[in-house]
């Protein structure tokens, strides 16, 4: 007797039940390695870019190295999502790692800032897939109710890389040579061995089934999206230098607006084959979560980037030390993310976390705006940073989970990449706007601080101190005080290079630090208001019960249901009218009935007969057997990623 009960090994795929925890963690390790590459590169370059631009004689072009990476990574994100839905996650995740590693190696050989910008653009093409596809793959293999627990590991990687990045970047930038190669080139070269390891791990462990679907590739959508987004990203990064109302900026606005409108028209025409299908925006949850993602990204990154600048300019910390001082934020983010994920997994409730997260983050930013100045102690600042991290950690993964739970399983990749795309766009806009506000006000605030401090005994004693007067570093400031330039030009030097503040006598440096703190407080206040807007919008998200099936399980169930519906819709075999006169019994040992006797079996079509044979007698099949047979029939149409 054959036992029809499915046997499931502890660490093997359990049929319809999905993957075991051990299998999920094995895949997760490979995804974390890829995510570590992308997130580390965002911070490791920031502390070394000044050294790099000096060595390549392109200080004024350094912004393009960052802008190029940002543009390509943002544009590539929705492309990876859509193509991975069509062809499977594995080939595109491996391609993303490969492109990133090749781009990193190419950056090592840069001989000018323009070459570096081009190679950074290549890097960005890979980075766009590393972050979004990692979340999509987890969505494929882990049910939404359990997903928050695993996504917390990603945030831990992000936090670790955010702390390690400035340290490693500062270390390499400070070395003249390592193994005969200029120290700063190791900032990019270090990605190569890490990337190779990630490539090997992912190539070995990432094997998930994928069902191919008929499709068209939305090339026009990709082109028009690029036309719309690239000019807007460029003006966001360069607008402060060009002038927001300059002719170049205005041209970027016009081209970007035309591109976005054209993209929407193209996507509506492409229907289901669109890069981001417009039908997704008819779902209120998806649309609202995408809008909240833009606002959250704007407030988070716009305010988040000010803290390291505060430590470096006001507190005189080196870039490396500033990275270490960011640890309280990361601790708060990781702790709250992991805890909220565990609670979501146990209770199935998640709406409370973005509500609490945005509210706490808004309060933390308000505290920065009200109480953090040049004299604030490190202990107080660290407490506010922990509070900010606690708020952000409850939102980052939950907002992606909301989007993933709202869309059909076949749209997992495009929905995840869309959520990442919108948050990145918000982050770019927030960073540009907030930096513009900061540097537009810092000169005036420094001028006010000079006016306020000029008559204090401490400041006057500094002007009369022979040691202060003899120090060449103090000369420009003393001359500026004695011959003030109307219009608040005292702080103009901060816009070009703030490092001179650290060489001043502390009494002369105080107005610069006070002025920067005051300008920073205004930016934090704006960021708090933006985060408060996200807090209000989160209340309008409808909390849909989290699915208990992973993306792969949901796809398999949908395919089995479609197959069952198709079988049910097949025409019944034609039957002949019953003859009241019994036919003589055929010769043989007693009456023998064939399958279909009495129902016109002789006229049954061959396809119907094959279907009946494949399905087996319905009266003797269990639901488990039906599911296994349906899976067996659909297996020839599947391939392994």
Describe how the helices and strands are arranged.
Elements: H1 21-44, H2 49-55, H3 62-87, H4 89-108, H5 113-141, H6 144-173, E1 177-178, E2 181-182, H7 186-189, H8 191-205, E3 209-211, H9 219-242, H10 247-270, H11 284-304, H12 306-314, H13 319-325, H14 327-347, H15 352-371, H16 378-406, H17 412-453, H18 457-464, H19 466-470, H20 475-482, H21 492-496, H22 506-538, H23 551-569, H24 606-615, H25 623-634, E4 638-640
Antiparallel strand pairs: 1-2, 3-4
Q: How do you describe this structure in short?
A:
By secondary structure, this protein is mostly helical.
How would you classify the quaternary structure? single chain
Any idea what the shape is?
Answer: globular
User: Main beta sheet, described?
Assistant: 2 strands, antiparallel
Fraction of helical residues? over 70%
Q: Structural class from helices and strands?
A: mainly alpha
Q: What are the secondary-structure elements, in order, as H or E? A: HHHHHHEEHHEHHHHHHHHHHHHHHHHHE
Low-confidence stretches: 1-17, 585-625, 630-640
Number of helices: 25
Computed over alpha carbons, the radius of gyration is 31 Å
